[in-house]
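Reviewer 2 asked us to include a model.

Predict the structure of this chain.
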Amino acid sequence: MLLNSLDKKSFIPRLNFLIYTNKNYSYKDSYTKKNRYFYLKGNLENKYKFERIFFQLQDKNRLGIVLHSKNIDFLNSYINAKYEDLFKQKIFKYFNELFDNNPSINKLTCNEKISIMQWRASQPSEFSVPLSLQFSRKYRIGFCGDWFEGEGFGRIEGSILSALLLVNKFKT
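Predicted model (structure tokens):
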């Protein structure tokens, strides 16, 4: 029954790009916190193709940059790209154009390494799966995720809360 329910769901596909910055890459300002976030909405998301950009302080004070895109045209251009290196150049171009006049963020040199992760189903949309399908006592098998009904549906919080509910179901 759970698999039938999931088969009818729709999900938001997403591309994530993890950029490994060069050792001398840093902020232009003196920002010292571990993470810095940018959320792009509407016209900015359409123009630059990114929905969110996370800067994360890594070991040895290096910065990692994670770009998230759910722009369907951008996803399709990645899927249909004949040369991944040319697609990666687009990523650098959009990033550098976005932060061209930003007083805090340096441009990328385009020599950074990028890992690309394609999520066919990164975020559930529409309806949630009933919690009654989360656990089978007969087979002692359970499932958790952000696609179950309840608080946090469609978000990381939903995955965590559903896992905590599942632990209690196994205990009882």
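Residues 11-123 form one domain. The mean pLDDT is 86. We have added this to the supplementary material.
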